[in-house]
Amino acid sequence: MEREYAKYILNKTKEDYSLIADDFSRTRSFAWDELKLLVQYITPGDKVLDLGCGNGRLLQIFEDQDIEYIGIDNSEKLIKIAKEKYPQKNFQVADALNLPFPDNCFDKIYSVAVLHHIPSIEFRLQFLKEAKRTLRPGGLLALTVWNLWQRKTAWKLLIETTILKLLRRSQLDFRDIFYPWKNSDKKIIAQRYFHFFTQKELKKLFKKVGFRIKEIGILERKNKKEKLTNIYLIAEKPWPRREISNEPHSIRI
User: Fold this and answer.
1) Which domains does the chain carry?
2) Which pLDDT tens digit goes with each residue over 166-192?
3) Selection from 34, 64, 31 nearest residue 50 by Cα
4) Which is nearest to 194 in space by CA: 12, 3, 43, 4?
5) In terms of pLDDT, which residue wins out, 251 or 51?
6) Contact indicator for 229, 145 with CB cutoff of 8 Å
7) Which residues form the Methyltransferase type domain (predicted)?
């Protein structure tokens, strides 16, 4: 994908969430049950970043945990909603590709259903590099993306986009789609960008950035209409390698 078009999609996604913020928050009023499995990685006293926090719903799985929580999102409207719901918590408008935090700042980073909205390999790597930069050595990144391969409506869009791509009539990359968001009146008010991830592709991205993958798999979500699943990945920021010098009693880091 051309860099300028990828930047256009990043801005479009931000505008899309501004359009759908109220409706999105209404349909995301609680944390999905399968996300509660991710709380097992928390230890008391952790400093936790919710990367792409939306309306702050992930806080529900941490309600009994002794942590320092910070939630960031690039949608001003969603952050406003989050602050209204959880006035005692720390929410900030920020760019996931340029985090306003120092190096080695967080013990854990959670990112739920965000990376599939990031276009191009370049910007996905930048997203992961920023997460890794702000994690402390030994810290964990717990990330999920939609498993779009399970969604019939997404498959139809993928076929259409692939044909356009083969005909050189689409600027999207292969396995990219625009997925419609419908309001309560079934009217399409936004076309959100998504990327169809595979587990293999995710692992490759994380390894390229220098993460150590601890776990990857599928989280199942209950849905009346169809079986929906998410791909999840748990990765660790390695400790710096120590090089033993030839000089006596010295270690280089």
Assistant:
1) 3-38+47-252 (3.40.50.150)
2) 999 999 999 999 999 988 888 999 999
3) 31
4) 12
5) 51
6) no
7) 49-142
